[in-house]
């Protein structure tokens, strides 16, 4: 049996209500998977900042690096006005652990969608592009001019494209293990860029992605490309068409938030921050102060984030079981949380999913 050590970082607000659900589903996986888990509770977030002066204690980073195979991150509250010394712990974690890919699956279930189910994943480069934050403002005779560097490297474009190809192949395996949730038959990657205008930066991204996805191991993956503005149009007109979408940082940011709007609730959408040999599962939603403490947060984004983390730790079968149990809960629609129009509590949704494992 394999034992995985998982760092649990609930953070703030409903992070503290959904991360325990994530732990429970790991503890409840069938023993036939031969998979055991040990857990370590770790601190980060705005409350940690208020108590200690840092939102991401060194101890949290050290333990993740030295002891853990993966982690689950809940949500953090960010102050609405700038607070001296505060910076987002998840952004810092991505840097410190070199989690260079942000992966966001967006999915409807067969029963809950009118028309074809949506089942796509956006793979966003997470280390460069305009987010290197090298900006400057100049005074000119015509007034101020601000400029920013958009940095695209061969290395980052290549590794993000490789991970996109690997995800496409793996999704195929997971569909086989948990059938009935998608009608897609062969894996596809869509490269998103604007190289018609930005021939050097986005041109390099496009060319490098093409090269990476031409590798022998991706011979079964159909590769397409789409200019980012028409990508947005097609994503909203025909979301069921897409499988894996790979994009540089800024386009990926916008596409992933936009795509999340294609499904019913933020409480359904998972994500993972992925590097070589490490993955942090993280629901897309925030700390939801409006429902904090009521016990009604939807745990499904977190449960799907657990499955996503397991995929990147090489446990496809365990991930497929969780995805299928969650889809079963949604299709059955007897235990839905209030954000989904139901009346079930976090605990009741969780118990219904666990019953279906
Ligand atoms: P939010 O995602 O916390 O909430 C938006 C709306 O969605 C709220 O009405 C909330 O009740 C609902 N919602 C979110 N998750 C839900 C769930 N699991 N179940 C049921 N309903 C859910 O976004 P916000 O209100 O804009 O931000 C609140 C705080 O969270 C802010 O401090 C913000 O900075 C922070 N935030 C953090 C992250 C993150 O940690 N990744 C992301 C977004 C916002
Ligand atoms: Mn965003």
From TrEMBL:
Pathway(s) where this gene product acts: Amino-acid biosynthesis; L-lysine biosynthesis via AAA pathway; L-alpha-aminoadipate from 2-oxoglutarate: step 4/5
Isopropylmalate dehydrogenase-like domain sequence ranges: 5-353
Keywords: Amino-acid biosynthesis, Lysine biosynthesis, Magnesium, Metal-binding, NAD, Oxidoreductase, Phosphoprotein
UniProt enzyme class: oxidoreductase
Keyword Amino-acid biosynthesis set for record: yes
InterPro entries linked to this entry: IsoCit/isopropylmalate_DH_CS, IsoPropMal-DH-like_dom
One of the Pfam families matching this protein, by short name: Iso_dh
GO molecular function: homoisocitrate dehydrogenase activity; isocitrate dehydrogenase (NAD+) activity; magnesium ion binding; NAD binding
EC number annotated for this UniProt entry: 1.1.1.87
Catalytic activity line of the entry: (2R,3S)-homoisocitrate + NAD(+) = 2-oxoadipate + CO2 + NADH
Entry annotated with the keyword Metal-binding: yes
Cofactor(s) needed: Mg(2+)
Entry GO terms, CC: mitochondrion
Family membership: Belongs to the isocitrate and isopropylmalate dehydrogenases family.
Protein name per UniProt: homoisocitrate dehydrogenase
Lineage start: Eukaryota, Fungi, Dikarya, Ascomycota, Pezizomycotina
